[in-house]
Amino acid sequence: MVVRFLPLAEHRESLPERERGELAEVIELRSRLPQVSSPALQDSNDDLEPTHLPEPTQHFEPTQHLEKQRSSAADDAVRLLARRARSSGELRRELTALEHDASEIEEVVLECEASLYLDDLGLARVLCEGLRERKRASRAQIRVKLRERLLPDAVIEQVVGELDDDAEHELLREAAVDRARKLGGLDRQTAERRLLGFLARRGWGGERALRVTREALDGAAARGTVRFR
Questions:
Q1: Are residues 81 and 125 in the same domain?
Q2: How many domains are there within the chain?
Q3: Domain annotation covers residue 212
Q4: Buried b / exposed e along 71-90 (16+ C-beta atoms within 10 A)
């Protein structure tokens, strides 16, 4: 549909009849609107000036951001102990690395020990048993491994002292006999020196290690499993 505005009344009569019939008359409403007095409005023949709108509300960014609250030493201790068993020394070291205060760390360690979250003696016994059964470790080796876990010296000595002397001697003998089988082709003195060095690296030394070494080499020669020059 095409809409055309009719010319003013005085000019309408001059239009052909056909054009007048096809036009949709549009009533001009502007003259009927109430006149509003406003400095922002000008005469209809003038350009409209933009009204002065208020400035948008300014969005203020906080000048300082609240720092994320640090976890407490107790929270970090629970998180660490939930991952794996730790000694009191290991827990102290890791809480110190997290920059907790020394006095707070000691308080948390005591609380964990009282709640049995920390059990140095129980941990030492479990580690000792595993080293004995899987690694056939000597007392000296077990001491080294327990110290690596930062267990207290008193706890280490208590656990090592609980090891059976007969079982310790049997471990020494088994290690010497097994190693003696691999020393064939050497002269007796060299074989003895190498076997003593092997046992020393496993934590055995002294007169008992020397006696077991000689017994193992004598037994290997008697059985014919090795020949010494």
A1: no
A2: 3
A3: yes
A4: eebeebbeebbeeeebbbeb
Domain of residue 143, residue span: 119-163
* 217 touches 183 (CB < 8 A): yes
Q: Residue 128, Cα to own-chain centre: how many angstroms? A: 28
Tens of pLDDT, residues 10-27? 555 555 555 545 444 444
Is the pTM of the predicted complex or chain greater than 0.70? no
- The answer to whether residue 56 sits within a structural domain is no
Same-domain check for residues 169 and 199: yes
Say which residue, 32 or 137, is predicted with more confidence. Answer: 137
Burial class (CB in 10 A: 0-12, 13-18, 19+), 199: buried
CA distance 177 to 180: 5
Q: 180 with 195: CB under 8 angstroms?
A: yes
Residues with Cβ within 8 Å of 127's Cβ and at least 6 positions away in sequence, in order, are: 142, 145, 146, 149
Q: Is residue 83 part of a domain?
A: yes
How much is the pLDDT for 191?
Answer: 94
Whole-number pLDDT of residue 17: 55
Question: What local confidence, expressed as pLDDT, does residue 64 receive?
Answer: 41
Same domain, 173 and 225: yes
